[in-house]
Amino acid sequence: MSADHPLTLAQRDDLRAIAAMIIPASAQFDVPGADDPAIQGDILSTLGRDTSPVREALDLLAHLAGQPLAELDPTRREAVATELRAMGGEVMAMLTRVGSNRQ
Amino acid sequence: MSDPVDVLIIGAGASGAAVAWSLADTKMHILCLEQGGWMNPATYPSAGRDWEARAFGDYSPSPNIRARPEDYPINDDSSPIKVVNFNGVGGGTVMYTAHFPRLHPSDFRVRSLDGVADDWPIDYDMLVPYFEENDRMMGVSGLAGDPGVPPRNPPMPPLPLGRSGTMLAKAMNRLGWHWWPSDTTVATADYEGRARCINLGHCTPACAQGAKASTDITYWPAALRAGVELRTHCRVREITTNEHGMASGVAYYDPDGKEQFQAAHVVVLACNGVGTPRLLLNSASGRFPNGLANSSGLVGKNLMFHPYAQVYGYVAQETDSNRAPPTCLWSKEFYETDRSRGFVRGYTFQFGRGVGPVAEAVASEAKGLLPWGAGHHAAFRRLNGHRLGLSAICEDLPEEHNRVTLDPVRKDCHGIPAPRIDYRIGENTARMMEHGIARAKDILAAAEATDICVNSPILYGGWHLLGTARMGTDPDRSVVNEWGRSHDVKNLFIVDGSLFVTSGGVNPTSTIQALALYVADQMKQRLTNLFD
Q1: What number of C-beta contacts closer than 8 Å exist between A and B?
Q2: What is the ipTM of this complex?
Q3: Per the structure, how many domains does chain B have?
Q4: Is the pTM of the predicted complex or chain greater than 0.80?
Q5: CATH code of residue B20
Q6: Do A50 and B57 touch (CB under 8 A)?
Q7: Which residues of chain B from 260 to 279 reach within 8 Å of chain A, CB to CB?
Q8: Which of B92, B163, B304, B355 lies 20 to 30 angstroms, CA to CA, from A38?
Q9: Which of 131-190 (B) contact A at CB < 8 A?
Q10: Within chain B, which residues score under 70 in pLDDT?
């Protein structure tokens, strides 16, 4: 985390990983995924008052993963995401909203 | 020590603006203190591309989420419905759907008609001139001739039905149930300096164009021209009293946070159904140990919200979604009592046009309709812009255990104790909500909608704050008399939703403002013996 980046490098990697799982790129619809660098840059630059809850959500994600989500293999990553979705609540709403605002 | 003003109004929202404007023709020195500031429409969410995200942040309807300096926290942990409001010049009218029905004549006589709650000390006919005056001042669009409500003549034509309204109206026709284009305060023609709506859409979190009537652009300019003084960013801590048991003025914090005293001959509370009891309870003193104007013990009690039962689904055709004002129709089919339904009183159906893409994504993810991964895009395209929905606005009966008190811990930024809400949905209302959900599903089925979802109650649906300083003729059973004056403090008046004896089953702003104009008129007729 620095003045230029509201999230740590690991948090940014995990945000990119979870964003790609929620909204992947689609050739069928000719749209980029939510892990697209331009979209990620926009998310980070406009987090504003959401920064703190997004950090908390990403920390929870890393806790469930036992290590940075981005470093897990796809199968394990999917299992962690399923666990997170089952928890629902504010954390899920936050991650969905931050990603969906760029739909 | 300041020079006393003739009338000091606390709150510049729906009712405070109306009463200020009406009293201005007395040429008295009228001062309004407002804890928020003037709004700048250029900064409203609808002026930017991130408008939906801001509705979850600095333009959330919840003061606890919004947390602007102008807001005060509300402990609503003990309520299934969270309080929503807005603090600033215009108050809740800055952030409302602009749906503008009136209470029905039967709403004033529920004890006589249905044996529940209490009758009001006034009736619908007494308010008609004030409803009409308010319709002109706010600028109401609608269609005369609705057989479901008493005659009225909105000064502007109704909003177009649009795609969503047309589908819903056809569904209602298939069922043979009443519907009518809603009355709204969205301008459909150029009106008193306001341009007609150009469908910026998403106008609930404030209208950047100014087509939606909020009192900062309707009543206040007229009141200021007539000589009313409005001081913003001034938060009242308490109403003070003198040795005669009369209100002597208020202690408040100025924009610099310094405590000030303003003397007044008359004090008018216009702080809504949570803010008004909070201030009265915070004004407890040796003379009034249980709070000001509270000899009945009813200040803060009988809080009514209107629990909303929201039902929606998805149709194959495109709907209006966020591309228009949010409401389009109402139905009074289930408004009046029919005991065969298992409850008394009833509800209005308020039909919506749909929601924007972020709201759709967040809600659909939570409901399990929107998958992650490969199926996401196709599912989102099927859902987004295809929502059709409606809400039953259910009459909430007054129950004393539903109440506003002072929180022992939470305080606002000036150290003033925050309100605490204790509320639960009553049995009659719960049965009404179940009925509303079942009928709404019938309607959506008739519209061939699928993937039906229910939100009951709407969690952040405490828009309507009513009943916490009710009017009545009996000082043991009411806080103010039949023209809004405190039974206990003869120069203290209340003009906001706190006055409501019962809630009806409609959005209350039209009736709140008509009541404010009525109370102002009663005051003007009694200027020579106002305190007798």
Answers
A1: 56
A2: 0.89
A3: 1
A4: yes
A5: 3.50.50.60
A6: yes
A7: none
A8: B355
A9: none
A10: 1
